[in-house]
């Protein structure tokens, strides 16, 4: 007798679980039919496609503009706040290149004059040894070349940034693609399983 009561209770719980699931699917079905009906009501109306038109040449244009004039590609992408950063990076590199090149030429001219036998260069009394003039030339030459390299890197990064930014502007996160957490109850041992569902509507 006790086994029958337990079996009846288990059957009743299982039936309630099934009916609860059916209510949920019926609710979803009614929501979907309501959506379909609302779509059918506006069938004769003019439908405007709100999806953004993608220009496949946009990244190439942005990169080309940045190659012609640094910062122009960023302006094309309407990221105006990046333009001062581009010019600050390029301006810093150019400034240090000019400064190091000027000092390199000063030490080189002084070294050449001393080799020619003159003693009236600007470093007379400050730098007594010719080897010190050679070391200073090498130091400023290395810094000049490094400044030039960093300026070229900043110029290339300006082009790459404009290109990548134009690609990302075309990146579309569609409402038809969604990821949701998923909770499932195992029908054998009634343990709950966690997961992720990927929904794609087309």
UniProtKB/TrEMBL annotation:
Signal sequence interval, chain numbering: 1-21
Keywords: Signal
Species for this entry: Kordia antarctica
Top-rank taxon: Bacteria
Domain DUF5683: from-to ranges: 56-202
Record's protein name: DUF5683 domain-containing protein
Pfam family membership, one: DUF5683
